[in-house]
Amino acid sequence: MTPRARSALLGFAVLAAACRTPEPDATYRPTESALEVLAMLRLHIDDDTYRFPAARDFTGKNIYYGSLVRLERLEEIYAEKYKSGYLLAPIVFGKALALERIGEYGLAARHYQRVSELDGELREVARRNRSICERLSGALALVPAPQARAETAESVFNDRNRLLEQLGTEVEGTHQRYLVLEELERADRERAEYFAGRAALEPEFEVAALQQYQRLVQSHPESKLRNRHLLELGDQYATLARRYVARFPPTTLRFDPAAFDEYSFGATRLYETVSQQDGAIEKVEASRKLEAFLAFTLQVQDEKLPR
Fold first, then answer.
1. 59, 155, 157, 190: which has the fewest Cβ within 10 Å?
2. Residues contacting 65, CB < 8 A, separation 6+
3. Nearest to residue 235, comparing CAs of 288, 191, 280, 186?
4. Distance between alpha carbon 284 and the CA centroid of its chain, in Å?
5. Separation of alpha carbons 234 and 290, rounded Å
């Protein structure tokens, strides 16, 4: 081979190597073992996700969502292998557990139903879990109509809570007790948001909205979302303060400093409480909201008529 040909061949090899698709980062490669995913899922299935955030996998993603995705990818990659029934029941059961843990109760119930139709030791557990998921899904469907009367809306939310509380006694001692606690918390939060939404258009709902946010904070003192609930209660106080100023400008005789101070003190106190929580992700948000609200109150004080 001539030197010129050898040089051209070497250049071609270097170009080909440069253009070749690089190997993906091993961290993000799909797992090659279903047992690995199922073992990790089983390790964290009993975690208390009501009081603490869900665990994360080695990529930093939610462990339950990550497990679901990996199991689905394994089914795609080894479709022929799993079509024969190899590990079918454990994989479908694992997907059901993951779906259950991320709140997809309808899909979880369908996966449990599929497992209950297969032979194996998981049939009875799958039947029980399917019933729990169906009842959770049914409870979540209880939502009042947007224009329902206050008494009717309150009754619907109460029915939802009763169903969840009854379910909570039945699943005591299982991983599903945390699901029920999370759904009770979500139901209380949706109740507060419902009345807050109505209050934006119908002022007579303002007191009810404030009471519901107070109830949310008092009912879930151990929740991982406690700081978030405190912020939302503070937002409600701040909203009421701004609405009061819009209705009764401080430059008029109708403005009552005591009424305004009641709302502003509530917002300020709650924002300060969260802004002093070292390590809390909501700390920065609370600090910014406190600064903005204090600027608003200073403006009101500056415009207020002397008494």
1. 59
2. 98, 102
3. 288
4. 20
5. 10
CA atoms within 13 Å, Cβ hemisphere of 120: 20
Give the residue among 219, 240, 239 at the shortest CA–CA distance from 229. Answer: 219
For helices 176-201 and 88-101, the axis angle rounded to 10 degrees is: 40
For the four alpha carbons of 30, 31, 32 and 37, in that order, the dihedral sign comes to negative
Quick one: how far is CA 9 from the chain centroid?
A: 58
pLDDT for the residue 164: 95
Residue 279 backbone dihedrals phi, psi, to 5 degrees: 90, -10
Query: Distance between CA atoms of 276 and 32, rounded to whole angstroms?
Result: 46
Spacing of C-alpha 117 from chain mean position: 32
Q: Token pair for residue 238?
A: 């701040």
Residue with tokens 């996998």: 57
pTM to 2 decimal places: 0.84
State the pLDDT at residue 60: 85
Compute how many other C-beta atoms are within 10 angstroms of the C-beta atom of residue 191.
25
User: Do 139 and 164 form a contact (C-beta atoms < 8 A)?
Assistant: yes
